[in-house]
Structures are given as C-alpha cells and as structure tokens.
Amino acid sequence: MKYERDDVETLMRFPVRLIVAGTRDWNNWKKFETNLNAQINIFKGMLGIPPSCIDDLYQDVLLISGAARTGADRIVIDYAKACDLDYVEFPADWGSGAGHYAGFLRNTEMSKVGNCLIAYWNCKSGGTLDMISKMSKQDRTVIIPI
C-alpha cells in the first residue's frame, strides 16, 4: 500500500521504517531482493522486534524511496508494488528553486522518518553518500551491501 509522505503520523507508526537508497545506475533486482529479505530480520532484531518467518517478514515494515526514476529508488518502488508491500515515495522537488540541492533536502526529510537504511553505493554518488551521512549522524543503522 502506498502512503503519502505528508502523513508523518501514520508513517511513524511503523516500527521498521527502511530507507532504500542508491546510485541511479544500480539495477540488480536479484541482489536487492536477497539483501532486503536478509536485512529485514536484522533490523527488526536491532529494534527489539522478534524475527519473522518469510510469510510475515514485511509486517510492520515501511519501505521508503527517494523516487528517482532509476536505480535502487525505482527498484524498491517496483518491488513494493509487485509484492503488495507498504511504501512511501519522497521525490525531490527539482522545481523548488533549490537546484541540485533538492535531492539533499529530500534526503533530510527522509532521514527524519526512516530509522534504518540500506544504501547501494558505488563510492562515487554524492546523493547516496549524503543519505548515509545523515543517517549515521543520527545513530541510525546503515547497511551498505557489497
């Protein structure tokens, strides 16, 4: 189910609010699915939630995407839709006059909602690095799959 980014009260009710971010050229669907399924129970455990079997794995989980047209942002949206999972999109407001800072402003907004992050980073992308940095500074769990 898709949620609206402005409904912060509803978003914050999810115990696991997982941001999935990454470079725009990252497109490994199979690796994404394997990593995501493996990490969900780890995040739940770190938050004091008992582990789930695969049938209930995504219960209490909200997937958060920056809504880029390609890369990890797009994969998580497509995955959520295909599997009927809870998700929310935070597209950057490129028309706001903020210029190339629009993505960084969007990352700030996402970091206020998310409590954990999986970042598919190529060690070059400034936007993904910004997301990693913002979550790390808040002592949020950050996983960077290799």
Number of strands: 6
Terminal Cα separation, in Å? Answer: 29 Å
The SSE string, one letter per element, is EHEHEHEHEHE
Enter the CATH topology name.
Answer: Rossmann fold
- What's the main sheet like? 6 strands, parallel
Query: Outline, from the CA principal axes?
Result: globular
Number of helices: 5
Q: Quick one: CATH class? A: Alpha Beta
How are the strands of the biggest sheet laid out side by side? 1-4-3-2-5-6
Characterize the structure shown.
- It is a single chain.
- The protein has helices spanning 8-11, 29-46, 71-83, 102-113, 126-137, and strands at residues 2-3, 16-22, 61-65, 87-89, 116-120, 141-143.
- It has 146 residues and is an alpha/beta fold.
- 37% of the residues are buried.
Defining traits:
alpha/beta, Rossmann fold, six-stranded parallel β-sheet
Concise structural overview:
By secondary structure, the protein is of the alpha/beta class. The chain has helices at 8-11, 29-46, 71-83, 102-113, 126-137, and strands at residues 2-3, 16-22, 61-65, 87-89, 116-120, 141-143.
Annotate the secondary structure layout.
Layout: E1 2-3, H1 8-11, E2 16-22, H2 29-46, E3 61-65, H3 71-83, E4 87-89, H4 102-113, E5 116-120, H5 126-137, E6 141-143
Parallel strand pairs: 1-4, 2-3, 2-5, 3-4, 5-6
Helix pairs in contact: 4-5
